[in-house]
Write a structure and sequence with these properties.
Radius of gyration: 42 Å
Strand content: 15-25%
Distance between the termini: 79 Å
Shape: elongated
Oligomer: single chain
Strand order of the largest sheet: 8-28-27-26-9-23-25-24
Helix content: 40-55%
Structural class: alpha+beta
Number of strands: 33
Length: 1178
């Protein structure tokens, strides 16, 4: 089949091609070629390519599809989770534990880091791949002409030179140059970001335009008309393919979020401090020949190593990576509740540090739907101009009405908005809200006043003229919201929706205007880009009038009328009259008195007001037609002759103007104000012309009324030099540092803006919905895509998706991000307080010759199990009231600020260390009678071998009896084996000798000797412990080996159950209880700890605001109790002993004192020295 060439210029002009534009910039490679040049270039013809040439071309150009992005394997993603300094410290602690036989500790640490890596890997692998989504956008089938025949093929099989057919509803399968164009309109918002449809032409004047109007582009869609085109590029060479390449290259720098950077810095600091303190403590322990009294017989070197492991474990917050991951995951859930879906965990927090939001206009700040906003009618009455507002404007939803603009105050609009929301479930059944109860509603069909009749006549004329477009209701399924969808010519959708708000069309099924005023299709003058108008002819329902407006005198019997719609400047010459008010008060078309200069001035003023508001203005009028007029039109050979008839006749009456706009989303203005108060800069980036961008910026309060606009708005071409290249970084940074509105932006401009802001140290968020936004979304610190109107490409390139497409949701997301970061600060302080406190009391205990308060596995339990639950509960803390009143933090700022350290961390650390040291000293003293390691060593007489630790033979200790409220003297002793026995019997714990009072060693020996037959037989003639040893023990061959065998075999609980070891373990158990409950109380005080610059509340003021904290602390409380009481589990695994009840009371009382000091010492000082002086300065 041959192609039919539709031309609006002469053949000579077509062959010459368009005149080259003088504008700087690259000329489009195909837009200026003639059809012969195109055919020659691709060895094609109007009959298409031959089947034989297609195969070779496919081998040359490949498939018409987008290349998929290379994805990291799951193993690479998994192992990448181990790169953080904090995790590396944990790995080092795990290796050290395993190397020295502490396999339980090593296994627990391994479990922690593996769980953390699994959680993060799952989140990353489940994120959608951007380029996979890009590939899915390609049209699956297309109509192609090959060998003169039309066929439907897979779009991936297209090659350059193919001739394709396009029609309404088709997706464009590849970039192509139009050869035949019958009123084609294309939706290119996915590429350009602009919602207004593009009217396609055959001849393009502006060859430097990025998207020439005589070309169609892959991934866009045809919304009207039909045509034929030749494919110019396929696959990755198309415009969308170019964006895909940019998308792959967009990310620069480390790619780490501010939180990850801060955690890495924190990990590095912890590592340096840990290694320094560890080396010092090991040296001190070696010099002091430290031995753990709770583990007699243990190799001294191993004892020192275990102290080192304990220090390593205490200095690394094991729970930090996992709690951060859990916190961010919980943050993801909270974000979803606030209509924001996060695709990667760290992005939850990043938005909280966002200092600039670069927002695409169309579909983000605006609704992305052309909407009728305002109507002017011009009836010669006392006022002469009638100014109306269509409201509410909710996209294509026809729920609304027509009101006088002067009646629509902000309070009235708020009332209408509430009424709109309340009627969502009932409106679809035809029930309009009673807007007239708030303000007079001129859309009410029952109103008979002049303004209502004329405005209804005007909208009916627009509706009838837009006969190819309709509005349909689509009920939501599967939880999806209901939708109102326009069908047909999308450029007329705003008119159809406005008419529906006035009960014309779909919202008034009882009155079918199209049937009532039947169109005469053969007399239509269609719209085209040169005419910029459309004329339809209709039959009157009642001769001599239309919608209650009478025709001019002399046309009382007219059976037809013409509706003229188009650009005001084009249709004014056809309609020199305005409506008038007849003697009976009704409106009437006039044909007697032409418009006066005052009339023209009123119309010009109204037109200018609409243009100043960035509204696209259409005008309409009506011309009565007699039978003779109809006969004359029918004689015209074509539309051009009919148009000449109407131009010559000049009999139409001008009815009014309608202003259509892509309106701001509801709440965008207040949201921008909140951003301004929060120190967040909002930058609008749009492809609109400068005046339109400026008008929108003023509407949404981005540029305040009265502010100078010249230094806040820029046409993006000014970012380039005379050669078309971007200016230097310094010049761009100066521009981007002050400009808030960028107009006529291209995708590469958006990326340049993002990178400039990032160079200035800002954390940049970029919102968008189209393919053109994807590279900038990927380049930004956090990309924010629209979930409903957004393309899959944009979603795939983003870090966060707004599920309701509402810019207001960004403010909620920022608040959520700030809350999450504040909570991360709180639990980092919480966990660091534990770890630093552990380092301090472990260090002091070594230096002061006190048994270390906690062992390695007890520290792990404290850091993970006991602290983990409250730390996670801290992530559920609600936001502080002033969280959106402070500036965003710097990307380089540390999690723990100077004030956090001075007032929030260090006081608690010292109070906790004092409480734990007091607890262990008191506990060991209560259960052994002494405190220091040297004194504990004197309690037992031991047997030693060269270079090996001593094993106890006899022990004399003092233990406080809570039942008798007095100290007792405890004696443990070993009875050597008799002939035939493998080993002897050690009398300890339940079989030990208990003596009343505090006895010295000699007194204890004398009382013990007379205690029973066993002691009397063992003592023999010995009069003290030294003689007993000489008599019974020193004479035994292989005594040390025998005792060591007894220890290793674990028989009789030796030697851990000797009074010295058991007493030390009981004291350590009390210290463990104190340490756990200090942290439990800290969880309550850290919620309002001083350090973030605000006035911190008192603990009791916020005590009940987070029930998760009560649950978490209850879990920690009872876990601690269980760990100390479950037989075997307590002693074998955690080296704890079930203590008397009074020990729990002591262990709990000290944390309460700790919490009191946390509240009453640093917080008043912070208020006095930081908060109050800051208020005075403000």
């Amino acid at each position: 089949s041959s192609c039919r060439w539709l031309e609006t210029r002469t053949q000579a002009q077509y062959r010459e091609g368009p005149r080259r534009s003088a504008m700087a910039g690259p000329t489009n490679e195909w837009a200026g070629l003639t059809k012969e040049e195109l055919f020659s270039r691709y060895q094609s013809s109007p009959s298409g390519l031959s089947a034989g040439s297609v195969k070779s071309l496919q081998e040359k150009y490949g498939l018409n599809q987008l290349e998929k992005e290379k994805k990291d394997s799951i193993f690479k993603v998994f192992f990448s989770q181990f790169k953080s300094p904090v995790v590396m410290l944990l790995i080092a602690a795990m290796i050290a534990s395993a190397a020295f036989g502490e396999y339980v500790e090593a296994a627990v640490i391994l479990f922690i880091i593996t769980l953390n890596a699994c959680l993060a890997t799952h989140q990353e692998m489940s994120a959608a791949d951007a380029l996979d989504k890009l590939a899915q956008m390609a049209a699956p089938q297309c109509s192609v002409i090959r060998d003169g025949k039309s066929d439907s093929i897979d779009a991936t099989q297209l090659v350059p030179g193919d001739i394709i057919e396009l029609k309404t509803g088709d997706g464009v399968p590849a970039d192509c140059r139009l050869l035949e164009c019958m009123e084609i309109h294309a939706n290119e918002s996915l590429l350009t970001g602009e919602s207004e449809e593009v009217h396609k032409v055959l001849i393009e004047d502006e060859l430097t335009a990025p998207f020439p109007k005589n070309m169609c582009f892959m991934s866009t869609s045809i919304t009207n008309g039909r045509g034929v085109a030749i494919v110019t590029t396929t696959g990755m060479k198309t415009q969308v393919g170019t964006i895909a390449v940019q998308l792959q290259k967009a990310k620069t720098g480390t790619g780490l979020t501010p939180l990850q950077l801060a955690l890495n810095r924190l990990g590095g600091i912890i590592g340096v401090i840990s290694i320094s303190v560890l080396v010092i403590i090991i040296i001190v322990a070696i010099l002091k020949k430290y031995e753990d009294p709770a583990h007699p017989g243990e190799d001294p070197i191993l004892s020192i190593i275990m102290v080192a492991v304990a220090f390593a474990v205490s200095s690394v917050p094991e729970g930090l990576p996992m709690v951060v991951t859990i916190c961010l995951a919980l943050g993801c859930q909270d974000m979803v509740k606030r209509k924001a879906l996060v695709r990667s965990l760290p992005s939850v927090e990043t938005l909280g540090s966002c200092s600039v939001i670069c927002s695409d206009k169309t579909g983000t700040l605006t609704e992305g739907k052309m909407t009728a906003m305002r109507i002017y009618t011009f009836v010669r009455t006392g006022a002469n101009v009638q100014d109306f507002l269509l409201y509410p404007t909710k996209g294509f939803n026809p729920n609304g009405g027509l009101f006088k603009t002067s009646d629509c105050s902000e309070g009235v609009k708020e009332g209408m908005d509430k009424m709109f929301l309340a009627s969502k479930d009932t409106f679809k059944s035809g029930n309009f809200p009673k807007y007239e109860s708030i303000a007079p509603n001129y859309s009410d069909p029952t109103r008979k006043d002049l303004e209502s009749i004329v405005s209804r006549c005007f909208m009916s004329a627009l509706f009838l003229n837009s006969h190819t477009t309709s509005l349909e209701f689509e009920e939501g399924k599967g939880g999806e919201p209901d939708k109102w969808l326009p069908k047909g010519n999308m450029s007329e959708a705003a008119i159809i929706v406005a008419a529906a708000k006035m009960r014309i069309g779909v919202t008034n099924p009882s009155e079918d205007l199209k049937a009532k005023f039947k169109m005469v299709p053969e007399l239509e003058i269609p719209f085209n880009s040169e005419r910029k108008m459309q004329i339809t002819v209709h039959k009157c329902a009642t001769p001599g009038e239309f919608m209650g407006v009478k025709f001019t005198p002399g046309h009382e019997a007219s059976s037809h009328f013409a509706i003229i719609k188009g650009a005001p400047d084009r249709i004014f010459p056809l309609m020199p009259y305005n409506p008038v008010q007849a003697e009976d008060g009704s409106p009437q078309l006039d044909k007697t008195i032409p418009r006066t200069s005052d009339d023209d001035s009123n119309i010009a003023m109204a037109n200018a007001q609409l243009a100043d508001q960035a509204l696209r203005v259409l005008a309409a009028g009506v011309a009565p037609l007699s039978d003779a007029d109809i006969a004359a039109c029918q004689k015209c050979a074509n539309a051009e002759e009919r148009l000449k008839f109407f131009k010559d006749k000049k009999s139409a009456t001008f009815l009014g103007l309608i202003g259509n706009a892509d309106p701001p989303r509801p709440g965008v203005g207040p949201a921008i104000q909140i951003c301004r108060e929060a120190g967040i800069r909002v930058v609008m980036i749009t492809g609109d012309q400068r005046p339109t961008a400026l008008a929108i910026a003023k509407q949404i309060n981005l540029i305040k009324s009265g502010e100078p606009a010249d230094n806040q708005i820029l046409v993006c071409s000014e970012m380039r030099d005379s050669t078309g290249n971007l200016k230097s970084d310094g010049e761009l940074d100066e521009l981007c540092g002050r400009i808030n509105v960028f107009s006529r932006a291209q995708p590469e401009d958006k990326i340049a803006i993002v990178h400039s802001l990032q160079r200035q140290g800002m954390v940049v968020g970029m919102t968008g919905d189209g393919v053109n936004d994807a590279p900038a979304l990927r380049a930004a610190d956090i990309g924010i895509a629209m979930g409903i109107a957004g393309t899959d490409v944009a979603k795939g390139a983003s870090d966060m998706v707004l599920l309701d497409d509402n810019f207001v949701t960004i403010v909620a997301a920022v608040e959520e991000g700030r809350k999450i970061y504040a909570n991360i600060q709180k639990f980092v302080s919480f966990l660091l307080g534990t770890n630093i406190g552990e380092v301090i009391y472990l260090a002091i205990s070594i230096i002061a010759d006190i048994p270390v308060p906690l062992e390695a596995l007890q520290i792990i339990f404290l850091n993970l199990m006991s602290d983990g639950c409250p730390a996670v509960a801290l992530s559920k803390e609600p936001a502080d009231p002033d969280i959106m009143k402070v500036n965003p933090r710097s990307k380089k700022s540390d999690i723990m600020t100077r004030h956090w350290w001075i007032y929030g961390n260090f006081p608690h650390v010292f109070f906790e260390a004092a409480a734990v040291l007091a607890s262990v000293c008191l506990g060991i003293y209560l259960f052994t009678g002494v405190v220091t390691v040297p004194d504990l060593e004197t309690l037992c007489d031991t047997v030693k071998n060269d270079g090996q630790a001593g094993l106890p033979l006899t022990c004399v200790c003092h233990r406080y009896s809570f039942e008798r409220s007095a100290f007792e003297t405890i004696v443990d002793f070993y009875v050597p084996p008799v002939a035939g026995e493998r080993w002897g019997t050690f009398y300890l714990k339940d079989s030990e000798v208990v003596l009343e009072g505090v006895l010295d060693k000699q007194e204890a020996f004398d009382a013990w000797k007379e205690e029973n037959a066993v002691t009397m037989a063992l003592a023999g003639g010995a009069n003290n412990w030294e003689e007993l040893r000489a008599l019974r023990y020193d004479t035994m061959p292989g005594l040390y080996d025998q005792m060591k065998t007894l220890k290793e075999d674990g028989g009789q609980g030796y030697p851990e159950n000797t009074c010295k070891s058991l007493g030390t373990a009981l004291g350590r158990t009390q210290a463990f209880i104190t340490a756990v409950y200090c942290e439990m109380m800290r969880a309550y005080t850290v919620r309002c700890a001083p350090g973030d610059g605000t006035n911190p509340p008192w603990m009791w003021d916020v005590f009940m605001r987070n029930w998760w904290m009560h649950i978490a602390c209850s879990i920690s409380f009872w876990l601690t109790i269980l760990v100390t009481v479950i037989p075997g589990f307590n002693r074998v695994i955690f080296q704890l002993v079930t203590p008397p009840f009074a020990t729990y009371l002591i262990g709990i009382s000290l944390p309460i004192a700790n919490a009191f000091l946390d509240e009453m010492v640093p917080k008043p000082l912070y208020k006095l020295l930081v908060v109050y002086p800051g208020r005075k300065k403000a």
